[in-house]
Amino acid sequence: KNEVEQSPQNLTAQEGEFITINCSYSVGISALHWLQQHPGGGIVSLFMLSSGKKKHGRLIATINIQEKHSSLHITASHPRDSAVYICADSGGYNKLIFGAGTRLAVHP
Amino acid sequence: KAGVTQTPRYLIKTRGQQVTLSCSPISGHRSVSWYQQTPGQGLQFLFEYFSETQRNKGNFPGRFSGRQFSNSRSEMNVSTLELGDSALYLCASSLSNGYSPLHFGNGTRLTVT
Fold it and tell me: Alpha helices of B52-106 — where are they, by DSSP H?
């Protein structure tokens, strides 16, 4: 059983829509990571958070420690946001447990 | 500042051979971690090094090993390659050991035939 569950697996949106990707984890964490992977494989770290909320441009990440749940929101989505978004639970020392990823396609 | 550099980008090997992959972290980063990505299993943690010491290891057979040098560069080695070792191998570096953002390299795509 994957200890990190993401939903949805696939997401299609029209440009400008508000997008939410959810992540649930089952073990205690030191940090929850949100990553973005474009075709070709390169991974970019979007957020690392252990409490509350973080915002960077059009991206917002929230975490609820009691419910072991995190969300990634994209406001005013754009075709360049099309990528796979992955959440990962850090068990310490960068020993990440990854979710299966959410494949997002944003159409103009 | 230069990013994380992984070499080579692509590699084709035959079953039974061994392979060594290299990762040069961002200058000043002392933690290097390695991950394997396959279509079937997704991303999985291999191991993490901090100041030349392996701090954590994932659930992989002993054929997978690594090391870190005094300049923080890291190598991972896979011996007796199997078809199932075909994957994208990613390394990431960070300032500390688990509480700093990770910076990923572009990966080495290994194909075992």
Answer: none
How close does chain B come to A5, measured CA to CA in Å? 13
CA-nearest of B45, B47, B49 to B29 is B49
B40-96 per-position pLDDT tens digit:
999 999 999 999 999 889 999 999 999 999 999 999 999 999 999 999 999 999 987
B87 to chain A, any CB pair closer than 8 A? The answer is no
* Cβ-contact A99, A6 below 8 angstroms: yes
Number of other residues whose CB lies within 10 A of the CB of residue A39? 8
Residues of B in contact with A98 (CB under 8 A): 42-45
Q: Give the phi and the psi of residue A83 in degrees, each rounded to 5.
A: -175, 180
